[in-house]
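Example record

One chain of 454 residues, shown exactly as stored in the release files.
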Amino acid sequence: MNLEQAKKRLFNGTFLLGRSRRGKAVDALFAFGSAEAAVVLVDAVGREHPEADGILSRLLTIDSKAKHEMHAAVWAFWKRQRYATLLNKARSSEALRNVLYDALRVMPRDDEGDRTVFALWHRLDDKVLAEMISNQSRHAPGLEMDALFGLAQGDAERYLVLEDPDCSIFEKAYIMASDDQKRRINSTVLKNLDPRLVKAYVLAGAGGHEQELVLEALKISGDQDGLFEQVRGMTLQNMLELVAYWEHTGNLPDDSSRKKTVERAVALYRELCSLNFKASDEVPAGTTDMIHFWEKREVSDEKLQAELGYDDPMVRAGAIYISAKRGRISQSRLRDIARTGSWLEKLAARLYLPGEFPEEEYEHVVWLRKNDRIDARIFNAVIPGTIDDSQFFLDSMRVLGESEDASDKMLFTLLAILTTFQGHFLRGIVTLDENDDATQKGAVETEDAPGIEW
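Predicted structure tokens for this chain:
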């Protein structure tokens, strides 16, 4: 039987004789040992040949030395497929998965062999493969994949031995990681806390990490200047939590300007605490605060995305609230939900859009409204904000400073903390020289910003 005859008989369906003819065709193709025969057999597995599992098992056990050409062709074909067929079969059959493990254990110790082993570990994220890689001291040819393996498996040294001054290796590794691998990388960083590792984690994330994890890593590593820079982009509530940390620990940034800003913010925070103004956070016995329940859940972004489509409106509302908090839902979509969603979904969305929607005539719930004296933007402000924001806050402080009301004093002190950080980050936007025109990008002429205090 020649190659063409074997190809024609490979899917023979003749009654009673078909199986025997198919078997002889398969045996013949394996006997040829050529790259072309290998491609025919691998393709047959993908086309769901009646004996696909048996063919696959034999393909995996091809000796890389005795039949080098055939072995190379098989793995090259799977690589072009991104290993889709092989992975599907391995995931659906424990027996085939064990044959795959055996094949990878004897994979040649060269760049191509190592690349194959790490590619399959990456896609399967399999503990057996990870243990095999560690036991055989294999390293991926690509630094990013090697770093990813170490970070995801808790071996920070695998990354730390690399030269990565611009954190590009870490960044690429993190981008390549699955959601589960990202969570394990987070744990590796938090357990190790080497300054180089924390720096790479923060810089390479470029806003993509969950802020809580970044803050925790920086706190434990003692990087107060790095913590200070995280204020940029924070809301008032998150910023207050960080100020509370500085007040409690007494830690301060090394940079003199940042240090002065934190010292002033901490002094104002102590004044805020002395006002003894706080809302009750107690709930009736046997109940749980809904928002606290949502915030305590540990759920991945992938899971949140799925929950946004659940039938249960309570689940959808929780997913909306946490997605908005993580910045994983657009403002336009949030506004659509606030207008047209169920009342639970509207609640979750409107918590981030206070005062934007007028109360409708037949509503059966009372919606949050903005304070008529102090615009809701105070609580939605994101540091550093704009010059217009800063002026509004300063004007609001003048009004509040004349009041003896406890809530007004609280707002005044909150604004003082807010504008303290604004002053640091906005410093330098307004520059003065002898020219009549502002020529630098981002510069503002003083005549266009009357009354600003710096």
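Notes: Residues 429-436, 438-454 have pLDDT under 50 and may be disordered.
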